[in-house]
């Protein structure tokens, strides 16, 4: 990551590491047929737009916008994992959602 202050860069590196780990766990569940589905291979159009908007920013403005976007994404992920952990129909995925939610809530 080229932009952002040192704290932002450290935060982004931590998020990359955690997302790689959770993505690998989901891919393993798919590969072992514990979960049906296919990994998403690309960003959504909204995500692409958000990345483009962030690319236009520098310094403190970049840091603030990135943190705002991550807070919103975090809240969405917490809500999704909580709902699936409570209401999901795949026991393996429900267990993963609950475990991941617990870790996510400690951010």
Question: Would you write up a description of this structure?
Answer:
With 107 residues, this protein is mostly helical. The protein has a domain of 29 residues. It is built from four helices and no strands. The radius of gyration is 16 Å and the shape is elongated. The mean pLDDT is 91.
Shape: elongated
* Low-confidence segments: none
Largest sheet, strands/sense/barrel: none
**SS-based structural class?**
mainly alpha
Secondary structure: number of strands: 0
Helix content: over 70%
- Rounded to an integer, what's the Rg over CA atoms? 16 Å
List the total number of helices: 4
H and E string: HHHH
Mean pLDDT: 91
End-to-end Cα distance, whole Å, is 21 Å
Give the percentage of residues in beta strands: under 5%
């Amino acid at each position: 990551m080229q932009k952002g202050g040192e704290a932002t860069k450290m935060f982004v590196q931590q998020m990359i590491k955690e997302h790689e780990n959770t993505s690998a766990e989901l891919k393993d569940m798919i590969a072992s047929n514990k979960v049906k589905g296919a990994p998403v291979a690309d960003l959504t159009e909204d995500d692409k737009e958000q990345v483009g908007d962030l690319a236009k920013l520098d310094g403190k403005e970049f840091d603030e916008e990135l943190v705002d976007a991550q807070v919103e994404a975090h809240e969405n992920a917490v809500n999704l994992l909580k709902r699936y952990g409570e209401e999901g129909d795949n026991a393996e995925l429900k267990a993963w959602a609950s475990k991941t939610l617990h870790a996510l809530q400690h951010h």
